[in-house]
Write a structure and sequence with these properties.
- The protein is an all-beta fold.
- Helix content is about 0%, strand content about 50%.
- It contains no helices and ten strands.
- Strands 1, 2, 3, 4, 5, 6, 7, 8, 9 and 10 form a ten-stranded mixed beta sheet that branches.
- Strand 1 and strand 2 form a beta hairpin.
- It is globular, with a radius of gyration of 17 Å.
């Protein structure tokens, strides 16, 4: 079994490199462990640049965010705390929210996402909007 160790700035990962399972752990900014699982056909990591790349049938499970994402490729940029998914990206959250795009860039520190479509097409989002009973205003013509 090959041993590989890296410190990821804001998440913990279970990386699969050609069949070998290699645990990698880290602390979140709040000090709590956060686990992310990345499955793909191939994965590579560059300790010099701090970039982890997963290619082919990528599936990411991020339980603390209630999120499952699939794409053709995913890259984690540890120095920027950025996750970039590309190629038929589909992100689904436990609460029913989802997004489908060609490319999604997710900043883990700010918890912000930017979705881009294939040129000439659109990003598709499904959002579950919650209203408080006090804020409902009747529609009047």
């Amino acid at each position: 079994m090959t041993t590989w160790t890296a410190k990821l700035s804001s998440l913990a990962a279970l990386l699969v490199f050609s069949g070998a399972v290699l645990p990698v752990s880290a602390q979140t900014a709040a000090g709590e462990d956060s686990l992310i699982t990345i499955e793909s056909d191939t994965q590579s990591a560059d300790n010099i640049t701090g970039v982890v790349t997963a290619v082919g049938n990528v599936r990411i499970v991020y339980p603390s965010r209630g999120m499952v994402a699939t794409s053709r490729q995913a890259q984690y940029f540890s120095r920027e705390s950025m996750l970039v998914l590309s190629g038929d990206v589909d992100v689904v959250q436990d609460d029913g929210n989802s997004i489908r795009a060609e490319r999604v860039t997710y900043n883990l520190d700010d918890e912000r996402a930017l979705a881009k479509p294939i040129p000439g097409q659109q990003v598709q989002s499904t959002l579950l909007l919650k209203q408080s009973p006090d804020s409902q205003t009747p529609l009047t013509p």
